[in-house]
């Protein structure tokens, strides 16, 4: 289990932006083979799957960790791909989010398989593209394998998460009537309608949840048609919204809320859709998945949650159960497929996507120990 720090360093030293995970993907495939996984393969999207344990058994637990990292921005003191260790922390892009979690799960599975007899199977998915479209890559793996439970290894400071807010991306297009900018009175300016719409939607009433908190609707960009619109009242304006969703919110409900709010503001000429941006995988697949990623809650009496609690207790860590405010691949496993899922991973959420991203070394070794205990409890 002591090689988890070295493995995390190695993974951090291989840049792996979304759609460019090829190098880290082949490195992980080799590592899983070296570590003696019974089955290792790379799927059509480039995600690497490793399975350990007797072939005739079902997969009890699937650990999920994404290989892709967000871009490096700002002035770094540390080399983002150096994997430097300083004062008990490992520095670099992806240390916390989330090559540390991925390395911990790989090391834990191989450790348990080496020292114990697995009676049931355990698997890991090193997934692509999580930073651009949560759940998509894991969905493909879950089409092939049907694990009884899923552990999302995203950073949680090793605190147990049994729920997560979902996420949707919405495009609201407000239609106008084009005209020369010198004669604006001849047209209908969709920018002015957009400003009215934004103000109305800022005060939209959204539901709240005891565990997950409030649903959120926030505009993230706006673009005219045509763009740029020079000397012209544009034909239309499209505003992109990020919508954080709660359990039981459906696409219909979410759209209806917006429609009602706009109608109340006397806006009627608009259209609404969920985003479906085109994305390329490094393997050459062209995909355009809809950004509708449901929220989820896992029952307190599920086996995976109980095993995780027990592991945390044995190590003497906090056993309080919480929720993630951000979206993860759990939206696919739990939100769409109702597979009992927990979130539990090394590193602090606040350190993700930051300048000089880093992770505490002790988080890596503790995560590996906790994962190993969970696997032993359920699979041996
Ligand atoms: Zn992440």
UniProtKB/TrEMBL annotation:
Superkingdom as given in the UniProt entry: Bacteria
GO molecular function: hydrolase activity; metal ion binding
Keywords: Cobalt, Hydrolase, Metal-binding, Zinc
Span of domain Peptidase M20 dimerisation: 163-265
One Pfam family recorded for the sequence: M20_dimer
Coiled-coil regions listed: none
Cofactor annotation: Zn(2+)
Gene3D superfamilies: 3.30.70.360, Zn peptidases (3.40.630.10)
PANTHER family, per database record: ACETYLORNITHINE DEACETYLASE, PEPTIDASE M20 DIMERISATION DOMAIN-CONTAINING PROTEIN
Family, similarity comment: Belongs to the peptidase M20A family.
Name of the protein described by the UniProt record: Peptidase M20 dimerisation domain-containing protein
Upper classification of the organism: Bacteria, Pseudomonadati, Pseudomonadota, Gammaproteobacteria, Moraxellales
